[in-house]
Amino acid sequence: MKTKASHPRNKGKPQALSIGRSMYAKLLMFFTVIALLPLAVMGYFSNHKSSQIVNSQFGSYGMNAIEELKLHLDTSIAQMDNITGNLLNYLISTPMVIEDGGTLNYSRYKEEQALQRYLISFETVNIVSVSVVMPSGKFIGSGGLDQARLTDSSFWRQVSGNGRRQVIIHRPDYYYSFVNDNMVISLVVPVKDHFGLPPGSRILIDTKADSVVNLLRAFQHNMNAHLQIRAADGSVLLQSSEKYSSPEDDIVWSGVMEREGWTVEARMPHAEFYRSSGVILNYTLIVAGCTLLFAIAMAHFFSLRLTRPIQKLTHSMRRFGQGELFIQTPVLTSDELGYLSQSFNRMTGQIQDLVREISRSEKLKSEAELRALHYQINPHLLFNTLNSIQWKARLAGRRDIQKMIEHLVAVLESTFAVTKTLVPLEEELALVLHFIEIQRLRYDDAFSFKLEAEPELMSCLVPRMVFQPLLENIFFHGFTDGAGEIRLSLVSGSGEIKAELTDNGIGIKPEHLLYVRNGQVIPGKKGGLGMRNVRERFNMHFGENCDFTIESERNHGSKVIIRWPKTYGEIYP
């Protein structure tokens, strides 16, 4: 069974994406936790403190309402007790006899009128009436009382059957002009020592209870609570609502009046008491939720902003590792991540240049090997043939031919030493001298050659067979019949060697100079590969650390300048 192989480029994408997502998830979680922790702590303490303040204010308001209600009741009852005391003092200090019913003589009438004027003098805005009510129902005091309604009222029947002091809060229905819906506080005091009054007489004082009722209503309206006043026996004297059921979990404020022993109690439902703190909690949660959503959005934005360049760089690095050497990652920021992206792009660019240089070097090497194969001959056959010619020249007495062949053999031996790529400068210059001697035997003394080289450079390495092609160009293209001057100088620089080869030949035509400098074949001309081969061999061994310059002026000669690093050591093939 055949299986379809996946493309190598696709293998790294899921992992690169997972790396980006992992970094994004970690940063998002980090920013969210950093935002959530102070938000939760601040929200908790803010809600707790606010709830405490609100609940404390509610409690203070409830207790203040109780205390204010107690104060109003105590003040009203104390005022009525003072009136009672003043009235009894008046009765004691004023000799009078008040009769219950019957026809009054003039003196009794005057005594009753004086008592009535005294009683009416106590009436104020809040004191509705101060009256003395006799057993028959006859009363002396405010003219607003209706005797028949008073004696028939349930209120009077309740208090007249009791021989002690009583304070009752009720709605009076025994006045002519008083609004019956209004509440009053009634004080009923039996007159035990007659003080000139008929036996069984009672002092009746009615005070408006408007302030008390208003406090009850305000408390009920503001706090949605129930307020009641209970007597010492537990009976309810006054309450804000008769339908309130008084659950057990109510929040209760209560206080006992010192004068009457009444219990003033305020009750507020548990849910109502904590409703404000619940509202604070809800708003706190809403604000915290909105803040958290905003924090998550900002965390998402910054996490994505941080991880996107990392994800892009990771993806580019993975593709580069899979063989896409020309990949470039986008530079999205100007911070450290942007610097990393720029460094990656520079690194890939340098690797691309290196790959091109290696490819170029391999291509040059292959071409050189191919050219060597094209021109390869059997060296043994060549040397044997030259040795035979040399012996024939010696037997014939041709010393010049013999010397020429000796020098040619030396040059050929160096040429066929293909295993040596770098040789000492001393060996290369010896080859140059053999070549010059061949040309001297050929052209006699038509040319002059001058060699200048510093002795300490002799052990430095140089590519093999680099000067001989340049000298051939001078004889074949620069000189006419071998006539001219040649100078080769080698000097030491700062870590480099400078070779300068000059001649005074015809030079290179300006239109051909550009081709020669670029190592190209001149159109319509043969040859031209010697100088190119020399340049390529220097570049192959020393790369950008060497320099090859050609200067020429027509009919004034040419100059070739070569610079390469000083290199010492063993000779490697």
TrEMBL record:
InterPro entries named in the record: Bact_2-comp_sensor_kinase, HAMP_dom, HATPase_C_sf, HATPase_dom, Sig_transdc_His_kin_internal
Highest taxon above the source species: Bacteria
Membrane topology classification: Multi-pass membrane protein
Q: Where does the record place the HAMP domain?
A: 304-356
Q: Which UniProt keywords apply?
A: Cell membrane, Kinase, Membrane, Phosphoprotein, Transferase, Transmembrane, Transmembrane helix
**Which Pfam families does this UniProt record tie to the protein?**
HAMP, HATPase_c, His_kinase
Q: Subcellular localization, per the record?
A: Cell membrane
Gene3D superfamilies from the UniProt entry:
6.10.340.10, Histidine kinase-like ATPase, C-terminal domain
Principal place of residence: membrane
The transmembrane segments are 27-45, 280-302
Designated name of the protein: HAMP domain-containing protein
- Provide the species name: Paenibacillus borealis
Q: What is the lineage of its organism?
A: Bacteria, Bacillati, Bacillota, Bacilli, Bacillales
